[in-house]
# Entry
Amino acid sequence: MASVEIYRAQLTREPFLWREMCVTARLLTEGVPLEEIGERVFRDNLFQYPTEKSLKRMARACVLRLQRLEDAEAVRLIAEAPATVSQQLCLYALLKDSRLLRDFMLQVIAVKYQQHDLHCSRADVRAFFLQLQGQNEQVAAWSDSTIQKISGVIMGILIQLGYLANQRSEELQLVYLQPQVREIMERHGDQAWLAMFYTV
# Structure
């Protein structure tokens, strides 16, 4: 199981990026060499950003996440599968890249599912960061604005993946793990992460 030992605040600059991940995965499945993807995205503005400023950086982030999957089938599914499958695999890739998000999903979402506690709000995100700041000097050094931004990104991810219905909702939805995603996670020895989803 891949492990990122340090906590990084890159979610403020490189959030979920589902649409961008789909574009990048399509380029990879079409056989575009890794080293050319950033240039292709930049040249043709494939992410359709209003400015070109962050195109190459975002493309690089997407490539790194896809590489962390170490799974050609997962990359193909991100490019071609229905949104539910593709989004769950993008979350899986992000979990491999972000210890921060991984710990939140395991320590907050997975625990809530296990305890049948279907209440989830910004207060849970704040409590997670407060606890983490008490345990980790690196996170303790982050500014309030950084933590606020990351908290907003995490809430956005929960909404996009269907854990929460919208910004105001505090009811944790049951997010069913798609069979193809489960198979890939188990193949890579990440069974412990299944608890982040509602499984039957």
Remarks:
- The chain has a mean pLDDT of 94.
- Residues 144-160 form the longest helix (17 residues).
- The chain has ten helices and no strands.
